[in-house]
Design a protein that fits this description.
236 residues, 2 domains, 72% helix
Length: 236
C-alpha cells in the first residue's frame, strides 16, 4: 500500500466518522425536539377545554384565543410529523423557534386558565351551621336528609375545587354544588328559626341556657318540633 492510498483511506475513514458524528448529533436534536413537543401536545386539549370554561366567568381572553389554540394544536401535530423527516443538512432553527413558541403559548395559557379558575373556586361557599345540624339531630329533630345533601354537595365542591384545570362542565358543576349548599341552608331555616336554633345549640353547651329563655312562645315551637321532652332543668 502506497503512502497516497493510505492517506486517501484515512481521509475516507475520517469522512465516514464525521458523517456518523453528524448523524448522531442530528438524531439527538430530533429526539430533543420530539421530547419537547410531547408535553404541549398532551396538555393543550385539556387547556383548551379549560379556556372554554373560564370564558364563562368573564375572564379576559387572549386575542383570538380559541382560534390560536386550535391553530397551535394543528401546528404542533404537523411539526411532530415533520421533524423526523428533516434532512441531515437542513437548518433546524425554524423548527426550534416553533417549538419554543409552542412552549411559551402553553405556559401562558396554563397560567391564565389556572389563575382564573382558582380565583373562581376560592370564593367562600354559603355558610351552614354544621353544629346546629348536629345539635338538632341529637335533640331528635329529623335532619338526616339535610345532612346527607349537605355532605354530598360539599364533597362535590371539594372534588371540583381541587382541580388545577377545569374539565368540561366544571363551571356548571361548581355552581350546582354551591346552589345545593344554599338550598340546604334554606331547608335548615324551614326546620328551625334562628331564635330556636340558638336555644337548641345553647342548651347542649356545658353551661346550658337560662331557664328564662323558655318563654311560652318558644315552648310551643319546641313542642312543634317534637323535642320539648328532651330538655331538662339542671340546678347549679
Amino acid at each position: 500500500m502506497t503512502l497516497r492510498s493510505t492517506i486517501q483511506e484515512l481521509r475516507a475513514h475520517a469522512d465516514v466518522a464525521n458523517d456518523e458524528h453528524q448523524v448522531k448529533v442530528r438524531t439527538g436534536h430530533f429526539a430533543d425536539l420530539s421530547a419537547r413537543l410531547s408535553p404541549p401536545l398532551s396538555e393543550l386539549p385539556a387547556l383548551n377545554i379549560g379556556l372554554a370554561e373560564i370564558a364563562q366567568l368573564g375572564a379576559e381572553m387572549p386575542p383570538s384565543g380559541y382560534q390560536d389554540a386550535a391553530q397551535i394544536v394543528e401546528g404542533l401535530r404537523a411539526l411532530a410529523k415533520e421533524v423526523p423527516t428533516l434532512g441531515i443538512d437542513e437548518n433546524l432553527d425554524l423548527a426550534k423557534a416553533r417549538v419554543r413558541s409552542a412552549e411559551k403559548y402553553v405556559s401562558d395559557l396554563r397560567a391564565l386558565v389556572t389563575s382564573s379558575w382558582q380565583s373562581f373556586v376560592n370564593q367562600p361557599p354559603p355558610a351552614i351551621n354544621t353544629g346546629l345540624v348536629d345539635a338538632l339531630a341529637r335533640s331528635g329533630v329529623d335532619v338526616e336528609e339535610i345532612r346527607d345533601a349537605l355532605e354530598t354537595a360539599r364533597s362535590n365542591l371539594l372534588a371540583i375545587s381541587s382541580r388545577m384545570i377545569p374539565g368540561r362542565g366544571a363551571v356548571e358543576q361548581f355552581r350546582a354544588a354551591i346552589e345545593a349548599i344554599h338550598r340546604c341552608g334554606e331547608k335548615l331555616g324551614e326546620v328551625v328559626d334562628a331564635d330556636i336554633a340558638q336555644g337548641v345549640v345553647g342548651s347542649q353547651e356545658p353551661s346550658g341556657i337560662p331557664l328564662t329563655w323558655f318563654t311560652p312562645e318558644r315552648l310551643d315551637k319546641l313542642a312543634d318540633l317534637g323535642i320539648i321532652d328532651r330538655f331538662r332543668v339542671r340546678l347549679q
